[in-house]
Structure formats: C-alpha cells, structure tokens
Design brief:
This protein has 290 residues and is of the alpha/beta class. 25% of the residues lie in helices and 33% in strands. The strands form four sheets. An eight-stranded mixed sheet has the order 1-16-17-15-12-9-10-11, with helices on both faces.
Length: 290
C-alpha cells in the first residue's frame, strides 16, 4: 500500500464500526466508510464534531450539523490548494489519498521537462471530478485536458486551479468521457499521459450504461490509441469494492503491450492516528521509459 502521509491540513483521527472521523483543517467530519469493518470506540460521542453524515433508509442521506462551520473552506497539500465542501452522497469534493499519485505524476512531468524544457507535455484526465490530478499536473508544467460529464464538478475544478495559482494550462470539457475519447481518436490527437477515475456504474446522457467490470478493458484499449509514441504514464484509479490492484495491472499490461515501460499496481491509503492505514482504493500505473 502507498499512503498519503504528507498532509498537514487533513488527518484521520479514528475509525470503527463503519465510520471514520476526519479533521479537515480544524473542521471535524464523521463519515461512513465501507472499508471500516472493524469495531472501535463510540465515534459519535467524540468531542468537537462539526457534522455527521447519516444514511437514509430510503437511500442516500444527509449531513447532521452539530457545530457551526463555513459552508466551504480550503485545505492545502504542499503548494496545491483545494476547496472543501460537504456535499450529498457523503463527499467533500476531494480524495486526500490521491496525493500519492499527484506526487508521482508531478515527478514524472518535472523530470521530462528537465530533460527537454521545450517539450509540451499534454495530459488527458478522464472522469476528472474536481480536478485534484489536473491541478497537480498543471502545476508541474503540463497542459491538461480535463473531462467530466458533471458541469458543477468541472466548475469546481476551475476554482481549485485558481486557488493553486494556475490561470492557464487546463482545458475544461463537460462531456461524456467515452464519446470524447472516440472523437479525439478520430481527430488524431495524442497525449503524453492519461489519467482516469471511472465510476463503478454510470449512465450516459442518452441512457448508455457503464459497468466497470464490463467496459473498463475496452475503454482503456481505446484510450491507448491516444498515447504518443513514448508516453510518460497511464494511471487508473478505482474505488470499486472488490476490484483488486492486480486487475488494473493486468488491464494496463495487456492494453499497453506496444509501449516501452513498466506497470505497477497498489492500494492507496491514509495513515490514521490509531497507528493503522485505512485502505481507500486501488491504482494501476504504467510508467514509460524515457
């Protein structure tokens, strides 16, 4: 497991009985987490909690506010700054565990720029959400095409970029990712790196169904057609329960066999103040030989 252990504005205080207690720059949130199947103390009784996310028997849920706090605020990771806002479906607009992948991609981009300062590095970020990876790559000097079907999330990505001091370097596209990739293939556009964080399930604007188990391999195969001759990386993130890192490694190994590089796969996680690491998903990363 690779753990995001460099955070200063975020930490997991405690876990237990399906919940995790987090500190987001002084704002304490208690949220459900499906990985927390072990028992712990009564987190609901912890002092200083600002809000608790409670599931509804009818599906979904909402936030139970215990103490007043701003509707949105910012947290920083190194030289990156992001807006945090408790939203529906227990989300806050940021996945802190992805910092391990932000660091890896920034290092690869920076290294390539050092070898050739004139090289324009183009990155495609699919299912890009609020743009944590887009901001990280742009900060390292890449030009990022950020694609997500949710207009509100794309707008939030633009806010995060501006908070991090990025005025250019990111092109924002509100579109279905599969349709966008198909058009890019027809256009003949190529990228130095591709990032994707596909959902477990999804439905396109015309009722198209996405199931990660059925569609991921073919979609990655299509995306491989958008890679330049000597790409920097291809990163797949997954939060689908039961999808092992080795599955992502196998998909990348099979679909990118024509490119020179190596593939690794790993869990990503966050250390907690209890002395354990909370698993938060899986990543598969192809790194091209430069």
């Amino acid at each position: 497991m690779k753990t995001a252990n460099e955070w200063r504005d975020y930490k997991i205080i405690a876990t237990g009985s399906g919940m995790k207690l987090e500190d987001w720059k002084g704002i304490k949130l208690l949220r459900p987490d499906p990985q927390v199947i072990w028992k712990g103390g009564d987190l609901y009784a912890a002092s200083g909690i600002h809000a608790v996310y409670k599931r509804s028997d009818k599906g979904g849920g909402g936030w139970d506010i215990r103490k007043p706090f701003p509707p949105e605020w910012t947290v920083s990771y190194r030289d990156l700054t992001f807006k945090v806002k408790p939203m529906g479906f227990k989300h806050t607009g940021l996945f802190p565990e992805q910092a391990v992948n932000w660091d890896a991609m920034r290092e690869m981009i920076s290294s390539a720029k050092q070898k050739d300062s004139t090289r324009e590095i183009k990155i495609l970020n699919l299912f890009a959400y609020t743009g944590g990876a887009s901001v990280a790559c742009a900060k390292a000097g890449a030009f990022v095409t950020h694609v997500d079907a949710a207009k509100g999330m794309v707008e939030r990505a633009g806010e995060n970029a501006r908070l991090s001091g990025i005025e250019g370097g990111i092109r924002y596209i509100v579109d279905d990712c599969m349709k966008f990739v198909a058009r890019e293939i027809r256009r003949g556009n190529l990228y130095d790196g591709i990032i994707m964080d596909p959902p477990s399930y999804g439905r396109g604007p015309n009722g198209e169904m996405w199931k990660i188990e059925e569609n991921l391999f073919d979609f990655v195969s299509s995306c491989a057609k958008l890679l330049c001759k000597n790409p920097l990386f291809f990163l797949i993130n997954s939060y689908t329960t039961g999808l092992q890192p080795a599955v992502l490694k196998n998909i990348l190994t099979l679909t990118l066999k024509d490119f020179d590089g190596e593939v690794e796969a790993y869990e990503v996680g966050i250390p907690t103040e209890e002395g354990i690491a909370l698993p938060c998903g899986a990543s598969g990363l192809f790194k091209g030989r430069q």
